[in-house]
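Q: Hi! First time doing this. I have a protein sequence and I read that you can turn it into a structure. Is that right? Here it is:
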Amino acid sequence: MLKSLAFTAALALTPLAAVAAPWTVDKSHTQITFSVNHLGFSDTNGIFREFDADISFDPENIEATEVTFTIQADSIDTFWEARDTHVRNADFLNVSEHPEITFVSSEFTKTGDDTATVTGDLTILGTTQPVTFDAKLNKMGPNPFNPEVQVAGFELTGEIDRTEFGMGFGAPAIGTVIPVTINLEMSPAS
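A: Yes, that's right. Below is the predicted 3D structure, encoded as structure tokens:
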């Protein structure tokens, strides 16, 4: 009985780990953008227009955050239809066989008051590689137009080497290391 009481007292004094709660991405204020160097002459910019995200977030415990992004590969838009058609074929994204690009976080590490690193598994063309993004909290607080809604805005930046996923067409003349930026706004799920 004494051991049982001691165990119960120890549990009561042990702080419980914070549990991250679901948040919803505001797709109207979220963009997944990238840039690819073209033969050294210029950079071609693009965006993925269709994606979903599952986010569990605790502002008081960044390390408990979990993120999954699922991007529809055929939603790529580089603002030139002929190029987009080429990028969707087997030379690049091969969207008929690999319709989704996914990122599943494995670790969030706080690096400052408003910064963190996000490490996870990125899958492109059926190949999965670990990648790390730098995350910066732009602002968190009530929406000025609806103070009952809490909003958090982040910018994530990183680089992906497309050849590590088996996408070697035109390399190295067409850039292989692709800077990626994700700007997102999210709010607690209703």
